[in-house]
Design a protein that fits this description.
Helix content: 40-55%
Largest sheet: 6 strands, mixed
Shape: elongated
Oligomer: single chain
Bound molecules: adenosine monophosphate, manganese (II) ion, zinc ion
Order of helices and strands: HHHHHHHHHHHHEHEEEHEHEHHHHHEEEE
Radius of gyration: 27 Å
Number of helices: 20
């Protein structure tokens, strides 16, 4: 005892005598780590050695059964197992999650324990996401907004009744992912564009995307651990790497020019009053096909998306709003997720202008969830910035050009709710209903403010095109591949 004390004291003396170290100590992120990088590096090392060690354990089946016949091995496994469960349980408790995993005697079914771990991972990752957003300056209101009088469905599972549950809304909504035709890819394999037919192609789609066999054998669809999927993926796709990381419409976008008609001053075409505008809710393939045909005949239409990312790691596009000069459409993209790609016919038609407000995220979500791309984009947010308006948000443009007071209350609503409450439908349609008129006004003002010269307007078309050239990425993107890609949108991806 006294020996260890004197050791401590002498250590302290050494530290005290070294004022530099002391100074560094004060700046440390947490004890022993001078900054986040050092901590992450150490963390990766620890995770890697744990993964290696677990890979070295006897395999389930004969090998494991053989080892287990030795009492020493059996005892060791049990004590280590208890320690791991104890540790997991503490982490889960720390995050306020349910944590019965360590309760061996209760014989909690493996699947149920697995669910607990998955749920806890969701909560922890979501919290990390919120903190990262906060660090980025995004202030996410954590409580989803519900229309007045809207009651979330009652809790059905007795499992959750006794728990302090802070994510009530999410637990009560059937996860829409469950009915998707394709699995959600949470592996670390790089995101591969979902496109398999390319309407309006000047340059044909590379064979990688059209060859069904290669696509159908995506390792993330196989029932193998994520690390193995990554390896299989790398080996299989080496020869297609260049195609996989390129924007499928890069060639078409590089050769897109703005016609003179879109660089000259338009006469703003007043929007139709909401009350006199037909609204269609699209949730069947027939209606989607009909909408696509309608859109293909137009020279412009407005688009917006609503997205949910409260708990699911990558997020989900829940709704697409489209407005033409005459009609509003709301597409249930949870229902039509696997069919949305048909809209590429209109979305990539270079003769049709697609008007978005603040399209950066939308372009990523369109690619990630539907394999949709935009050729000929006009982003009114970029227009507003070029005009140096007081603020560049959509509600400001609505007030400025349309004298409409929009209620942004539902921006952070849980858009997975079905049937969609009327208040949310009305909110959603407002996001696109006025956008074509705003597009006219912004173009006219860009020309006016530049003495009728098209330079400023042209710069907005160029900025919009840059946004549409964004390539959505996830997973581990090997460093040597990065030069293949023009503009990357890493969605919590890791570049190595
Ligand atoms: P909007 O383009 O304003 O309709 O927003 C589209 C989606 O982006 C919404 O459905 C939200 O999921 C998300 N979003 C919008 N604004 C915010 C915000 N301030 N913080 C976090 N997410 C947002
Ligand atoms: Mn939007
Ligand atoms: Zn919106």
């Amino acid at each position: 005892m006294s020996l260890s004390k004197s050791n401590d004291d002498s250590n302290r003396e050494v530290l005290d005598s070294n004022s530099d170290t002391n100074e560094e100590d004060k700046n440390e992120l947490c004890p022993g780590f001078k900054d986040v990088d050092a901590f992450v590096k150490h963390g990766f090392g620890v995770v890697l050695s744990a993964t290696k060690a677990s890979a070295g354990l006897p395999q389930p089946g004969d090998e494991f059964d053989f080892y287990r016949s030795f009492p020493g091995f059996q005892e060791f496994c049990e004590s280590q197992g208890d320690q791991i469960l104890q540790c997991m349980s503490q982490i889960m408790q720390h995050h306020g999650c349910r944590s019965h995993v360590k309760d061996r005697n209760k014989l909690t079914a493996v699947e149920e324990r697995f669910d607990l771990v998955v749920d806890s991972n969701d909560v922890i990752l979501e919290r990390a996401g919120i903190l990262l957003d906060e660090a980025d300056g995004v202030n996410r209101n954590q409580k989803p907004v519900m229309p007045a009088g809207f009651q979330p469905p009652k809790i059905v599972s007795p499992l959750f009744q006794s728990e302090t549950f802070r994510l009530l809304h999410a637990k009560n909504i059937a996860r829409p992912q469950l009915k998707f035709k394709e699995k959600i890819d949470n592996s670390n394999t790089p995101f591969v564009p979902k496109i398999f037919i390319k309407p309006n192609a000047v340059k044909p789609l590379p064979s990688y995307f059209t060859n069904k066999q290669i696509r159908n054998e995506r390792p993330e669809d196989l029932d193998v651990p994520a690390a193995l999927a990554d390896l299989i993926h790398q080996q299989r796709t080496q020869e297609h790497v260049e195609d996989m990381f390129a924007h499928p419409y890069q060639y078409e976008l590089d050769h897109l020019t703005v016609p003179d008609s879109l660089l000259s001053k338009p006469e703003p075409q007043m929007y139709k009053p909401i009350a006199e505008t037909k609204l269609s809710f699209i949730d069947s393939l027939e209606d989607l096909v009909e909408l696509n045909e309608k859109l293909c005949k137009l020279s412009e239409f407005a688009v917006d998306l609503e997205h949910h990312s409260y708990r699911s790691f990558l997020g989900l596009t829940c709704l697409m709003q489209i407005s033409t000069r005459d009609e509003d459409f709301i597409i249930d993209t949870l229902e039509l997720r696997s069919e949305m790609y048909i809209l590429n016919e209109a979305f990539t038609d270079p003769t049709i202008v697609k008007v978005f407000h603040g399209a950066d995220s939308d372009i990523e979500w369109l690619q990630r969830d539907f394999g949709l791309y935009v050729v000929n984009l006009f982003d009114t947010h970029q227009g507003s910035r070029a005009l140096h308006l007081a603020r560049n948000s959509l509600d400001h443009l609505l007030r400025h050009f349309c004298n409409v007071d929009s209620d942004k209350r539902y921006q952070l609503a849980d858009w997975r709710i079905r049937p969609l409450p009327n208040e949310m439908v009305q909110y959603a349609r407002t996001d696109t209903h006025y956008l074509l008129y705003i597009y006219d006004c912004v173009r006219a003002q860009l020309l006016d403010s530049n003495h009728g010269q098209p330079g400023l307007l042209q710069s907005v078309w160029n900025k919009s095109k840059d946004i549409s050239l964004t390539v959505f990425m996830t997973g581990f993107v090997p460093h040597h591949l990065v030069h293949y890609v023009g503009r990357l949108a890493f969605c919590r991806g890791v570049q190595i």
